[in-house]
Amino acid sequence: VTGGSSGMALASAKRFVEEGAYVFITGRRQETLDAAVRLIGRNVTGVRGDAANLDDLDRLFDTVKREKGRIDVLYASAGIGEAVPLGEISEQHFDAAFGLNARGTLFTVQKALPLFNDGGSIFMTGSVASVKGFPGYGVYAASKAALRSFARTWLNELKGRNI
Questions:
Q1: CB of 154 within 8 A of CB of 109?
Q2: Catalytic entry in 22, 75, 137, 140
Q3: Using one digit for the tens of pLDDT, what is the confidence trace for 65-95?
């Protein structure tokens, strides 16, 4: 569960464990990650990293492979969103949103595929912002709209593996 050290992703990781799963969670801040691991309490490994950083993703999936070998469920949830109105959007804002929300999700899924069991599931955190047109959230909304496109495409690309 990327971004699993807080919010909806942490709640999901906790629920996965309650349902009998072993989870790996990521987060960028070690203190927050450690607190999340303590909160979940069992059947969890925290791996510090940023889903927008390909080296961090490699370290995550090397850890998964070494400790468990395979993946049944991937929840690519790491994401950011900040309101910046048109006319004030900077390259840094655009790159950060697309870097984590779209690029990070793409490479999280792609790097996980070699470890994926056929019949597994991929979850991504989208947003209603991608279809509603909230003022100030154009970049965020566009980055989340990319996830819907990924889901439709990957469904067809991975159907032979029942993922």
A1: yes
A2: 140
A3: 999 999 999 999 989 999 999 999 999 999 9
Catalytic site includes residue 140: yes
Burial 33-62 (b: 16+ CB within 10 A, else e): bebbbeebeeebbbbbbbbbbeebbeebbe
Nearest to 28, CA basis, from 61, 71, 66, 60? 60
How far is C-alpha 81 from the geometric centre of its chain's CA atoms?
14
Q: Give the span between the Cα atoms of 109 and 120, in whole angstroms.
A: 12
Other CB atoms within 10 Å distance of the CB of residue 156: 8
Instruction: Check: pTM over 0.85? Answer yes or no.
Output: yes
pLDDT tens per residue, range 117-145: 999 999 999 888 888 989 999 999 999 99
- Distance (Å, whole) CA 152 – CA 159: 11
Beta bridge pairs of residue 26:
47
